[in-house]
Design a protein that fits this description.
By secondary structure, the protein is of the alpha+beta class.
């Protein structure tokens, strides 16, 4: 050819050229894509866990408590939407090639660690409070404990452990036939200890507002005490079930 382009003449040469072209155009998975895929799966599992809230946790709840639960669900859904938007921005940044691969991997790993704490699959520690609820007459109801948890969430609690159980979006607090309190099926006994990571200056007063959680505990014959700690350790974790009917959209 006059323009210097070399055209394969034999069938073997043409086949070799097509093989090289196919290998060049084949998508190559990167560490960034794999980490982002894992983030999407974990976020999907966390959302699925939130939707699996059992009806048992609403047993005996008053109209006021149901309204508060509905408001809390809306707040939590809004928080998940913010997380999803941030994840979308991270994914778009990785796709557009901004920053080197090491920076992208570091950002993705940090996001993964945060999502693991939110989903309850990883231990956590930080500044917060320890709430102790005495119940000498065994009169504190499941709905009252649920109200304490909801007040803490409304006050910005990031991580909660009730007794030996990690509290997540799907956690239920119920009563068995003998009157014992159950958290996700695990029996808890008084005094009930709630370990919470968050801003003590906000969570403490929120529990003590007139007509709030502390007054509800007192009405059931119990007492609520709050201790501020600089390093609250939450060691309990949960295992997320694999989704049966859904998969990540790629």
């Amino acid at each position: 050819m006059s323009d210097g382009t070399r055209i394969p003449e034999s069938p073997e040469q043409q086949k070799a050229v097509w093989h090289r072209l196919r290998d060049t155009l084949r998508p190559q998975a990167t560490w960034s894509q794999l980490i982002v895929g894992l983030l999407c799966v974990l976020l999907g599992l966390a959302i699925a866990a939130q939707l699996r809230q059992t009806d048992d946790s609403l047993e005996g709840a008053s109209q006021q408590e149901l309204v508060r639960l509905l408001d809390e669900s809306g707040r939590h859904a809004a928080g998940l939407e913010v997380e999803n938007a941030e994840l979308d921005r991270t994914l778009e940044s990785l796709r557009s090639g901004q920053g080197d691969d090491a920076e992208a991997r570091s950002a993705a790993e940090e996001r993964l660690a945060n999502l693991e704490i939110i989903a309850g699959t990883s231990p956590a520690h930080g500044r917060g409070i320890v709430v102790s609820i005495a119940d000498p007459q065994n009169g504190v109801r499941a709905s009252t404990l649920l109200g304490v948890i909801q007040e803490l969430r409304n006050a910005g609690a990031e991580v909660i452990q009730l007794g030996t159980v990690r509290v997540v979006a799907s956690t239920s607090i119920t009563t068995d036939p003998s009157g014992r309190l159950l958290v996700d099926g695990t029996v808890i006994t008084a005094p009930y200890t709630v370990r919470v990571i968050g801003d003590p200056a906000v969570m403490g007063p929120a529990l003590r507002i007139p007509g709030g959680a502390a007054d509800s505990v007192a009405a059931d014959g119990g007492t609520l005490a709050i201790a501020t700690e600089q390093d609250v350790e939450v060691t309990a974790t949960v295992e997320l079930d694999d989704p049966e009917h859904s998969e990540v959209v790629k």
